[in-house]
Write a structure and sequence with these properties.
Number of helices: 10
Radius of gyration: 34 Å
Number of domains: 2
Strand order of the largest sheet: 3-2-1-6-4-7-5
Bound molecules: S-adenosyl-L-homocysteine
Order of helices and strands: EHEHHEHEEHEHEHHHH
Number of strands: 7
CATH topology of the largest domain: Alpha/beta knot
Distance between the termini: 97 Å
Shape: rod-shaped
Helix content: 40-55%
CATH class of the largest domain: Alpha Beta
CATH superfamily of the largest domain: SPOUT methyltransferase, trefoil knot domain
Length: 266
């Protein structure tokens, strides 16, 4: 079980599948995405050898534990929430989510409820009668040809559920710079950009606002703010050093000139 979605509460229901290979490939997709409960209703040809060939040995366990039913209504009796999948839109098929929106919706529902996601037969899809058993319908957006291979449709739905259900801390979340760090950086930038005459010293805030918008859009991380502040510090140091070096050599020249002229009456 992942933290956000309870995958143990979600079953994939294949209604009247005609090709055993699709059952095997669907089982494999489920396995890839961490789902394990497969229900098969009134299959046309259930040839175990063909199912297992596409399931591969990894999903053999899912195939071994398939629950079979004669009738969809009977198969769905123990479920609290039923999702229908459809390639076709229009008519009675009103409520249609995108797979990712569906996955979001299932997060809270999956905690305490058993969910069935129903897929129709390869030739005709789910009938209107089947659809009346569903709480919600989902469509996978496609180009003009809307009918996906059954197992591929299973994969897309399982992928969205798996992705949305991943633990928050599995995603890399760097620390963003806080207000104090950002304000310090803006002060330092303003100071240095005026010094090097990149922005007009009479109206520095006009340009600083543009820079603020630019950096705000980038959502700077704390580490990145330190880098920018480091560059400002180094630029400032370098400018001062060049200025002091210039002064020293000017002084030297003057001392030399003075030495040359010493003793001469001017
Ligand atoms: N010819 C059928 C499609 C059957 S495809 C029709 O027009 O409805 C077999 C099953 O795969 C469908 O019943 C559905 O469960 C799923 N499926 C295929 N394409 C889909 C899509 N674009 N969106 C959602 N589910 C889809």
């Amino acid at each position: 079980m992942t933290e956000r979605v309870n995958l143990n509460n979600i079953s994939i229901v294949l209604h009247k599948p005609r090709h055993p290979e699709n059952i095997g490939a669907a089982a494999r997709s489920m396995c890839n995405m961490g789902l394990s409960q497969l229900v098969v209703v009134n299959p046309k040809n259930y040839i175990l050898k063909k199912v297992l060939k596409l399931a591969t040995h990894v999903a053999a366990d899912i195939v071994e534990h398939v629950k079979f039913y004669e009738d969809l209504k009977e198969a769905l009796l123990g479920y609290n929430y039923v999702v229908g999948t459809t390639a076709r839109l229009g008519g009675e098929r009103q409520v249609v989510n995108s797979p990712s929106k569906l996955a979001e919706k299932l997060i809270p529902v999956s905690r305490k409820n058993r969910i069935a996601i129903v897929f129709g037969p390869e030739d005709k899809g789910l009938s209107n009668e089947d659809i009346r058993l569903c709480h919600v319908l989902v469509n996978i957006p496609t180009a003009e040809f809307s009918s996906l291979n059954l197992a591929q449709a299973v994969m897309i739905i399982c992928f969205e559920i798996f992705t949305v259900g991943r633990k928050e801390n599995e995603k890399y979340a760097p620390r963003l710079a806080n207000r104090h760090e950002l304000d310090g950086m803006y002060d330092q930038l303003k100071d240095i950009l005026v010094k090097i005459s990149y922005i007009n010293h009479e109206n520095p805030d006009y340009w600083m606002n543009k820079l603020r918008h630019f950096f705000t859009r980038m959502q700077l991380r704390a580490r990145e703010v330190s880098i920018i502040r480091g560059i400002c510090r180094q630029t400032d140091w370098y400018g001062k050093k060049r200025y002091e070096d210039g002064l020293k050599s000017k002084n030297k020249d003057e001392v030399k000139k003075g030495a040359k002229n010493a003793g001469k009456e001017i």
